[in-house]
């Protein structure tokens, strides 16, 4: 982990696919950039803690990691998805916890 304090806006792949499906059915929108995310930030340390809690819950091995605590220019993202939600009649449905559990299921680590 580069630095546990770095913040990002995570989006579940299933939410992204649903957004693409909705966008395909809309007329072409020219010269506009839309933010795609779930609309809130989480830092890497929170992601690791959540992942470790899920691994503990399912009695799976806990990996080791190293927090390098390196400085990063892009340490915090801000993703306002209001226009995206309105234009494409879309909203994210899956939490980060849902996403991590889905990854465990897809990798056949849990049922």
Task: Explain what you see.
The mean pLDDT is 90. This protein is mainly α. Strands 1-2 form a two-stranded antiparallel sheet. Helix content is 40%, strand content 4%. The longest helix has 14 residues.
Overall form: flat
Helix vs. strand class: mainly alpha
Say how many strands there are: 2
Strand arrangement across the biggest beta sheet: 1-2
Percent of sequence in beta strands: under 5%
Tally of individual helices = 4
pLDDT averaged over residues: 90
How would you name the oligomeric state of the polypeptide chains in this document? single chain
Summed up:
By secondary structure, the chain is mainly alpha-helical.
Fold topology:
Blueprint: E1 7-8, H1 13-24, E2 42-43, H2 44-57, H3 82-88, H4 96-106
Antiparallel strand pairs: 1-2
Features:
about 110 residues, mainly alpha, two-stranded antiparallel sheet, 4 helices, about 40% helix, about 5% strand, flat
